[in-house]
Amino acid sequence: MLGAATKRSAPEESKGEMADSRGVTATSTEPVTAVAGQPAKTIEARDVSLFYGDFQAVEGVSMTIEPNKVTALIGSSGCGKTTFLRSLNRMHELTPGARVEGGITLDGEDVYAPGVDPVAVRRLIGMVFQQPNPFPTMSIYDNVAAGLNLNAKRVSKTQKDAVVERSLRGAHLWDEVKDRLEKPGGSLSGGQQQRLCIARAIAVEPEVLLMDEPCSALDPVATLAIEDLIGELKSRYTIAIVTHNMQQAARASDVTAFFNIEGTGRPGHLVEVGPTQEIFTKPGKQETEDYVSGRFG
Amino acid sequence: MESASHPVHAGSVLKLDRGTGSLPGWATWAVLGGSAAVVATILLATGAFTVALTLVFGTMLSAIVLYAWSRAVEGPRRAMDRTMTLWIAAAFGLAMIPLFSLVFEVAKRGIPGLSAEFFTSDARGVVGGGGAAHAIVGTLVITAVATVISVPIGIMAAIYLNEYGTGRLRRALTFFVDVMTGIPSIVAGLFAYALFELFFGPGIRLGVMGSVALSVLMIPIVIRSAEEVLKIVPNHLREAAYALGTPKWKVIARIVLPTAFAGLITGVMIAIARIVGETAPLLVTTGVVDSMNTDPFNGRMQNLAVYAYNEYRSPGVMKQASYDKAWAAALTLIAIVMILNVAARLVYRRYKTEIR
Description:
The structure holds 2 protein chains of 2 kinds.
Chain A: H1 12-22, E1 43-52, E2 55-65, E3 70-74, H2 81-88, E4 98-106, E5 109-110, H3 118-124, E6 125-128, H4 140-150, H5 157-170, H6 174-177, H7 190-203, E7 208-212, H8 220-233, E8 238-242, H9 246-252, E9 255-261, E10 268-275, H10 276-281, H11 286-292
Parallel strand pairs in A: 3-8, 3-9, 6-7, 7-8
Antiparallel strand pairs in A: 1-2, 1-4, 4-5, 9-10
Chain B: H1 2-5, H2 27-46, H3 51-74, H4 76-110, H5 116-120, H6 133-164, H7 167-181, H8 185-200, H9 207-231, H10 235-243, H11 248-275, H12 280-283, H13 304-313, H14 319-351
């Protein structure tokens, strides 16, 4: 199903199906190219366990990542947040020996179903990494257009120009780089590079954006810029963000999921998930309270 | 409480070895020059003066004098540092001697053999005269064909090993590539001969046979260097491309290879430099011939290494002229290798990618 579906042109009935499975009234809109405010998609994880060879990194995570909201994944180092995030768009399996158990669905469609092309999944679920990683051989322009160029879509120059401008504006980078689009991506500052990577990710118009500690290599000003951007992007995308910065989770997210680990060598697990406000003020579990209040971790 | 939060250092002594002074900047050079002068004087007095002896004893004397002087002024640690620096520089100089001596010797003996004729005419039907144009062209053609065969195979094999291969097969291939790097070049020549003999019968000699023989030597070098270069392409670039929904082959073709481009070219150039001077495999595959042949698929083909060997082995009636031409061929070969190396550096500088 996903293999054939080009983005946002998913068949009407599958949207309806999905809405039913969520128990929400169907709000299916005409499948057209990206329009602001269009409902994004829901990711649902059911009893997901993740392995690297014999080592189990994550155990039994079940949670829903809601559309048009920012879901923050917090927890101490090594508790499997990043691994879980990478399993959502099938990046986890790129590691040799990596395995996934359980089910992950995107609007009701199993992304791990046999016959589903991981490449198609990744076109729908984009990712921004911890280290800004623009392609060093490409200009700023080509970095943003990389998704189009690499995915063999026949796009005219005018269309491409439009996509690049829209994506760079979307990433709040346009004004800073519009006069030097032909310069290499590596010539930008760290914060600008990260926004360039976000522009690159949204240029392919994914449904979901996964962010793996996108601000951990950035200074506070650049971090604020990215957080503002995240707040804006959620109107169009489903966003999941891994962060070590609890202030960031509190500031930028709507839903927070707390992961923890019982000890070295043990798998990480989801402790609880809930509205950010609640997790930070009156969490359901002592563990969470200890962590968010800084008593450990 | 107050004193606890401000640990007092008053009683402790900072044991920094500041020495008592330092030698002037020209000290090392002065010691070297002075020692050389002293040694040279003594050797001249005893009548045993040579440049080599002056250098050897001069270095030893310098080491002793420098240590003593530095120890007296700067203390033992700095003195040891200076002595070691001197020894390391001397070791480097020693390693350079064979290189410079070789280049100097080849240039000295090769330049008399160089002439317009050497580069423009072949040696067909001439006695004692003639040039090496056929050998130069042959070297270039044979090497070019070998490169055309080896580079695609080598780089694709490296891509397999680095991007696709896993487990046992990968380990086995790596092992065999290592073994291939150590194949004696004559074996490669005999292999190519045996291969072509199967199809064309005994006594066959073709330029392309030489290229195949050289490919056997070149492929493992290309694989090894390309693999090293692909390895240093950071994984986060591959992941960034995957996250955009890019198929694997395109990640390799559009991200990994361009990022590694400069390194790949350098590796290829080095591999070419390594095989361009091969003699033994070409003796049994391309044969020896005096006339110009530009077609690798038809007839014998001369090349510089075999040419030099042949001029030396059977100089004919005008011995000195032949020897001169052998040295001139060697000089030309060194020049070709140097040009390739310079080209590799230029390409690297022009196309290198800043990889964090």
